[in-house]
Write a structure and sequence with these properties.
By secondary structure, the protein is α+β, with helices and mostly antiparallel strands. It contains four helices and two strands. A two-stranded parallel ribbon has the order 1-2. It is extended.
Length: about 90
Amino acid sequence: MGLTFLFIASCLVIGGVLPFLFGRASLLPRIGESLKSAEPKRFSPRKTLFIIGPSANHPPCRLQRRLLKPAIAALIREDVVVMEIYGDG
């Protein structure tokens, strides 16, 4: 637990200090402005692929994810959203 906390804290410190050291402190406000002005994606059932199962470790669900791995580039190119839904209800 302590090692994990140390690793996360060091990543946050390094990530917060490096932009100032390299003179890119003005980049952060521009990123924030572009995120605020970006229009959120609207849900489209035509561009959504659902993986539904009782749990993430269920064999058919693992098989579906394994079969989708080679198609990741095509899914990104076609702007397809993959939603995984797990549970009893």
